[in-house]
Amino acid sequence: MLGFLKNPVVITAEINMNLMALIVMGLISRLWGLSYPRAVVFDEVYYGQFVSLYMKRIFFVDDSGPPFGHMLLALGGYLGGFDGNFLWNRIGAEYSMNVPVWSLRLLPALAGALCVPLAYQILVELRFSHCAALGAALLILLENSLITQSRFMLLESILIFFILLAVLSYLKFYNLQRHSSFSGSWWFWLLLTGVACSCAVGVKYMGLFTYMLLLAVAGLHFWHMIGDQNLSNVSLMCHFLARGLALIIIPVAIYLSFFYVHLTLLYRSGPHDQIMTSAFQASLEGGLARITQGQPLEVAYGSQITLRNVLGKPIQCWLHSHKNTYPIRYENGRGSSHQQQVTCYPFKDVNNWWIVKDPGMQQLVVSNPPRPVRHGHIVQLVHGITTRYLNTHDVAAPLSPHSQEVSCYIDYNISMPAQNLWRVEIVNRESDTDVWKTILSEVRFVHVNTSAVLKASGFIGASLPEWGYRQLEVVGEKMSKGYHQSMVWNVEEHRYGKSQEQKEREVELHSPTQMDISKNLSFMAKFTELQWKILTLKNEDTEHKYSSSALDWITMDTNIAYWLHPTSGAQIHLLGNVATWTSANVAALVYMCLSLWYLIRRRRKIYDIPEDAWQLWVSAGGICVGGWAVNYLPFFLMEKTLFLYHYLPALAFQILLIPIVLQHLSDHLCRSLLLKSMFSALIIAWFSSVYLVYCTFSPVTYGEPSLSVTELKDLRWKDSWNILIRKQ
């Protein structure tokens, strides 16, 4: 019974020593001296702020992309015990002892190191030789720009890792398709493709380019499957559903999960709250939530409210009035109504409070039980402090003469009657009987007499002059001019008024209220709002010293100085390996010219290479040239500040193309043994030059050793490169 114990248990395993050596070399090149310099390097000043906010659980919005990349950087800080206490205010600032520099830079460095074996595996799966695959991996290993970008708290190396992982996973899945459909490994690589794609998109939206490329390739492969008569309709449907599940549904679910974790972690109010809606702000701990917690949900006649404009950009503001009146005549000679000013004020103030009044009753308090205001009801809005009614009439607004002036009505006993009736229209209503709700309802106020809509026009035009205290203009806009978010308002602060006397009411308006009603948003509502803000929020793009155009990248006419030692000549630059970049451009040009030549010849029924070699050539180009194109060409359409590091994902694909072209030339154009030997010698000489350039620029890749002024000048191979040289 125990006979099996007589012999030892033996486990055999195949180890690819090429792969293991590449992993070790990749780790050494990216992890060596990772804590140096112990100072803020270039965009670490940007991403470090978000890491600190994660550590403190404070909400933020980054318009550069989704949160997954930021969370990975924050994970490094969490593993290193970072408490978030560091002022990220300038490049070159020395890190304090509480900042775990090595831990914060670890994940980008690991991602950069793993790109080396991924390159090797991709070429193996494309059916190229191990020699070509090794060449691709070594080119990635010795690419100075990829090393620099992966050694700091930046996102590009993580993005490239997930992009290459997605490509490799799909190639492995596709190669298993021929003989192991629906096997465990088949499912694993298909699912990993979807996961890697969603992670790439979750790091930066640039990952979407490669995701779309792989979807197109998968669609093309499935189209070929449809023509396979050996596959039944049921089998085709199963293949279609499997791809839909793994490449669309699961990536979308994972993408949503990134935001779920992001919003779960960041539950505290922070500096970016003001660009979010009142409902979103109220869902965060602190900030607006402290003010609005427990407010009455339903707006009733007699309610005391503040009205926030929904647009909220460039700044948030609230409907406001004060005792000052419009000047009798403006600077341009036009006259006004001389009524009380109504503005949009970007700060919380007691003069932001208004009372919702029933036009048929005189009372300014909430009855018992409260009578809620519904969509379509007519109301009057009474300014809480001055008790004057919100009014508009056929008088030109001060800054927008084609719109109506909005004021609080003063009876001057002249032929200008009050026009202070407003119809409440709930824009996001579910039915025409919806109740006007605090924070949740987005409403328009339509003037009954003129059909003008209450609008904050100061977002588009200038602020009022000195007589208006530089506050934003509010106008009555004709509905015929279309819909705009500046016409929409929501109740932010709300209480049920109890005091009919003015003096008592003023005291009431200054005091907080606490009632027990929750206004929590669902995850999908918060996700939708946050996603929309990320996509539409635009910081003012200013010209940066190291910004560049997409045309500059191909020939590397630009560089970026990442860090300069405060006393010595040691410095770090984002500079590529000139030999590799030039070779990549030549390889792309050769590939396109050869492909065009082959296509023309094949059209004439002349086949220069075997069919399997042609299919290999086309499939490799679809991945490598396609990957380069989709990650590069879109930048010509982008209106944003661009930097050299935006080119790195495209460069990674272009580098993979170099050994593909070299092997093709060796196999199919070098037909004699002599030519093959000469070509091999040229490749060795060329690769030696790649290594020599890598060594030459290593001091500005790793930041050490410090170079003399003469040595720095010798590194300025192009006049357009900005190598920093201290004045003696």
Automatic annotation (TrEMBL):
One of its GO terms (molecular function) is dolichyl-phosphate-mannose-protein mannosyltransferase activity. One of its GO terms (cellular component) is endoplasmic reticulum membrane. Pathway: Protein modification; protein glycosylation. Coiled coil: none annotated. Keywords: Endoplasmic reticulum, Glycosyltransferase, Membrane, Repeat, Transferase, Transmembrane, Transmembrane helix. It is an enzyme of class 2 (transferase). It is found in: Endoplasmic reticulum membrane. Pfam families: MIR, PMT, PMT_4TMC. Belongs to the glycosyltransferase 39 family. It catalyses: a di-trans,poly-cis-dolichyl beta-D-mannosyl phosphate + L-seryl-[protein] = 3-O-(alpha-D-mannosyl)-L-seryl-[protein] + a di-trans,poly-cis-dolichyl phosphate + H(+); a di-trans,poly-cis-dolichyl beta-D-mannosyl phosphate + L-threonyl-[protein] = 3-O-(alpha-D-mannosyl)-L-threonyl-[protein] + a di-trans,poly-cis-dolichyl phosphate + H(+). Its EC number is 2.4.1.109. It is a multi-pass membrane protein. The chain crosses the membrane at residues 9-32, 68-88, 100-120, 154-174, 186-219, 240-261, 578-600, 612-630, 642-662, 674-694. SUPFAM superfamilies: MIR domain. Its main location: endoplasmic reticulum. Residues 296-359, 370-427 form the MIR domain. This is Protein O-mannosyl-transferase 1. It comes from the Eukaryota.
